[in-house]
């Protein structure tokens, strides 16, 4: 038997040298081998180790294609998953020392003052048409190509704005151009809009009603009066509603009674103002009385009474259960009416949606509040049937064209609505003398002070 070496375990250095750790190393090596090779065969299933060959025929080997890469060149190819970096294409400007292409040799210049034959003109036209077709084909072929580098410069010197948008930034949508307005300020045509500056969709000036003319037809005059009557009835209804909601809710009290009530409230509890007489109470308040007094032997319920109460409770419960069962059966027969109720609900919801949409449309047309005051449209001027005259001289002037134009500006959010200034508020100028100024008696006599 080997004796174990005993050493100091106070420090990590002693612990490493003296203690045997071979069992730990062997266990770790086995684990590493298992990770490399896999699980042992004893733990694996038969399906993982073996497979049944049901083909019976030898598969034909695929012939290698002629264009396949050679195996010896596979070493030169990269095996990494990262794609190779593409070289940046830098545009190089070359000096064009060559002269422009001369005209075709087939096309001969016409002689000055000479007569040209018809055959020669036809041949010349054919050659020119062919030349134009070739040029158009070249332009169309190079039109869709994208050879320019966008990131070297957004705009070349001497290039116009419209040409740049057509050729270079044709593929960018308008939203991207507006978003990058700081980088490309010349490309975006976006303008900042303020809610106070936007005008509503109302018409510039309303065409006056035909019933307002000095010699209207009976139908137009009646329709005008009907419209004005409808507006007046709406105003009267609104006033009545406001009175009903505010004034009529509170009880009306006379002035004298109101003053007496205020005095009574203020003098409550003060000596001399309240009655000192105390009502005599016959009952003794000192005794303690319970809400549910204790039962005695004489007042105790008998067994017969308890049985009757139990029987009545059971009967009531049975009656309630029978009612519930009847209700279930009646609900089954009521299914056909439920569909009608659902249809009514759908119609109501659709009506509410339509109302909301109409409100939104009216909000777009109606005026927005620019200032503190609300815009109120004035009523149309009208004349009663007895006031209508046959000639212009006898008719009285009604309405004001300047006022109508002013109201139309307010309605279209161009001017803010103001209030009538009945008084001219002038600031009082305070006059005072400077302390350094010397006042002489001649000055006082001059101004009669």
Automatic annotation (TrEMBL):
What does the record give under GO molecular function?
A: 5S rRNA binding
Q: Which InterPro entries match?
A: Nop53/GLTSCR2
Q: Which UniProt keywords apply?
A: Coiled coil, Nucleus, Ribosome biogenesis
Q: Which GO terms describe its biological process?
A: ribosomal large subunit assembly; rRNA processing
Stretches of the chain forming a coiled coil according to its record: 305-355
Q: Name one Pfam family in it.
A: Nop53
Query: Where is the protein found, in the record's own terms?
Result: Nucleus, Nucleolus; Nucleus, Nucleoplasm
GO CC terms, sorted? nucleolus; nucleoplasm
Sequence similarity:
Belongs to the NOP53 family.
Q: What does this protein do?
A: May play a role in ribosome biogenesis.
Please state what the protein is called: Ribosome biogenesis protein NOP53
Organism, scientific name = Macrosiphum euphorbiae (potato aphid)
